[in-house]
Amino acid sequence: MSLDTQLIRSLKAPARPVWEEPPSRAGLAAKGGFLALCCLGVLGPLWIVIVTSLSPKPVIDQVGGLVVIPQGITFVNYTELLSGGQVSRAIMVSVGVTLVGTLFSMTVSVLAAYGLSRPGSLGHRFFLMAIMATMFFGAGLIPTYLLVQSLGLTDTYLSLILPSAVSVFNILVLRAFFMGISPELTESARIDGAGETRILLTIIMPLSRAVLAVISLFYAVGYWSAWFNASIYLSDQQMMPLQNVLIQLVQKNTEAPTGLQQAVRTGQLSALGLQMAVMVLALIPVAVASPFVQRHFKKGMLTGAVKG
Amino acid sequence: MSVTAGSRPDGTRPPAAAEAPGPAVAAAAPAKAPAEESEPRRAVALRKVPFRVRWRRDRALILMTSPVIVLLLLFNYVPLLGNVVAFQEYDPYLSSNGVTAILHSPWVGLEQFSRMLDDPLFWSATKNTIVLFVLQLVLFFPVPIVLALVINSVIRPRVRAVAQAIMYLPHFFSWVLVVTVFQQILGGAGIIAQTLEKHGWSGFDLMTDADLFKYLVTAQAVWKDAGWGIIVFLAALSAVSTDLYEAAAMDGAGRWRRMWHITLPALRPVIALLLVLRVGDALSVGFEQFLLQRYAVGAGASEVLDTYVWNMGIQNGDFSYAAAVGLAKGVIGVCLVLGANKFAHLLGEQGVYKK
Predict the structure, then answer these.
(1) What is the separation of C-alpha B335 from the centre of its chain, rounded to a whole number of angstroms?
(2) Considering chain B, what is the average pLDDT of its residues?
(3) Which three-class secondary structure state does DSSP give residue B20?
(4) Is it the case that residue B125 has pLDDT exceeding 90?
(5) Which of B61, B82, B246 sits opposite A118 (nearest CB)?
(6) Would the CB atoms of A282 and B12 count as touching at under 8 Å?
(7) What is the DSSP code (8-state) at residue B91?
(8) What's the CA gap between A279 and A287, in Å, rounded?
(9) How confident is the model at residue B47 (pLDDT cuts 50, 70, 90)?
(10) Taking the CB of residue B123, how many other CB atoms lie within 10 A of it?
(11) What is the DSSP code (8-state) at residue B41?
């Protein structure tokens, strides 16, 4: 019996197990409908935002709000936003902070994860405890704010990177993955005379591409989405990252980014179309990057999250 | 050393045996750490390897760990000391530097805390926090479980992959984006209000409705993170052996019985763990989400403890009072984690850390 089952499985994998009764039509319909509804709930709003950002002003005015059915697609909102001015600058800031921040976070995290991946090494237990303890208590907003201020980090991009550069959770995920790599590999390298740095670079890291990709994405998304640090540590409008510009546009009812206000007032551009275009610009990198590392999520999360 | 044998991925408290230097270490420093194969592993304890040898052996690892230690020391441990301003009447202008100003500020003991207890705004923020926590627990927590069960029951891999990919997506959007999307769709000038107006209804604006705000933010949280929450459950489900299902089917269990007796019990430890984490985090119901919607609904409905700290400290400059509120929140938070974990142990579950 079990041989048959295996045979069937191997022939047309992944087949429905033989012991399972065929799905009822009503059940299939309900399931499919439910999932379709969930997906529509996610994609619907995004569709509307994207379509509106691509619509010319007359269409937006005629509908009187967000556009659902695309008519006369135009890229004028994007070309205006990207041709310099507040939004272009904010994108540069966001891209820069994300790149530098992710690189920095990954470097220190990978180093620490590897440094902690050998139980029994000197100080292993102590350092691990010191790092994990920060998961249970935070210092609180006010003392952190005072510290960043007195370190002279306010109004520098470092204030967007340093205070939140380390995610202990990410380090633990990386560490768990490194520890899962077969010790024979590193042992043989050590016998051949490789130092720790060399082992990390030539053995551990190439074997951990999947988890490195996932953790990089986590860090990058964190930096890309951050706005709160900028809102309390930066006072110069010129330095604001994209998310903060978006807040100013939509939350505080500024109608258009500086530089384009004239065009909105004279009726060449639609304020709503511009706002939606900024939103799309803010979500594009994330929406593009996440599917690529998607298939690693479960593996990456599993090694760290479930076990601890 | 056998990295896998001695390793415990959670790393909480490696057993003594794990500390024993094994073959790998012996290979690295054969002269200094002769393998004492005849003795049990435990006996090859740390003490037997001199500190200098261990330092020579492991200094590269320590060097690698140090940047993170320095960062955490600076931005997590040092600010911990900064909480002393909660016991002061802190004035940042008493010195040129915010930290040295702490040395010059007068001590007031528990005055800030007694002020907190008499403060109706503090209690209102606490009430909002608790109400939101309960709502999230009831309306948000079960959603990923249900979603995971449905997805898990889908056999076709293509459908599963697409559905998961779409559901994960909003997790990676910033709160700014999520709040803005909701605002454009449910707000006063949003798409639903526009449509209703065209058909003769008016006055629809969910975003500024203080009474419905708590449901609105819960809905936002579900939209953003429910899809992401299914990962852990799916992982737990994929670890269930199909033999169990097969055996149950042999015994005549139908689809629902199999779910009840196999699938759900398989999820039990994960559910318990996540519940513990959630309860331990009860006072942090979200921060950015509420800060962003302050302007729309007003502070009365959107003020939670975290935003209250921000408002009193960074907006109003009342650092000592805000630090007191933050400290109180932090202490209660730690107690909640420990308490919830204790409770999980009582229920026979593993909890976040082990006993």
Answers:
(1) 15
(2) 82
(3) coil
(4) yes
(5) B61
(6) no
(7) -
(8) 12
(9) low
(10) 12
(11) G
DSSP per-residue letters across A208-250? THHHHHHHHHHHHHHHHH--HHHHHH---GGG--HHHHHIIII
**Residue tagged 């206000």 (tokens):** A261
Closest CA to B66 of A126, A250, A39: A126
Report, as an integer, the average pLDDT of B245-272: 87
Long-range contacts of B204-208 (CB under 8 A, 24+ apart): B207/B182, B207/B183, B207/B293, B207/B296, B207/B297, B208/B296, B208/B297
Nearest Cβ partner for A127 among B69, B81, B223: B69
Q: Which of B149, B172, B151, B170 is nearest to B160 (CA)?
A: B151
Residue type (1 letter), A145? Y
The two tokens of residue A100 are 């530098």
Q: Which residues contact B95 (CB under 8 A, 6 or more apart)?
A: B101, B103, B104
Burial class (CB in 10 A: 0-12, 13-18, 19+), A304: buried
Show residues of chain A in contact with B152, CB under 8 Å.
none
Q: Which two three-digit tokens encode residue B57?
A: 């052996």
Contact B10, A307 (CB under 8 A): yes
Q: What mean pLDDT is predicted for residues B176-184?
A: 90
Q: Find chain A residues with C-beta within 8 A of B4's C-beta.
A: 179-180, 182-183
How close is the nearest chain B Cα to the Cα of A266, in Å? Answer: 22
What confidence score (pLDDT) does residue A144 get? 93
Nearest CA to B83 out of A139, A148, A232, A151 is that of A139
* DSSP secondary structure code for residue B173 in this structure: S
Look up residue A203 and give its DSSP letter. I
Start-to-end Cα distance in chain A: 38
Q: pTM, whole model, 2 decimals?
A: 0.84
Whether residue B21 is predicted with pLDDT greater than 70 in this model: the reply is no
How large is the C-alpha radius of gyration of chain A?
A: 25
**Reported ipTM:** 0.85
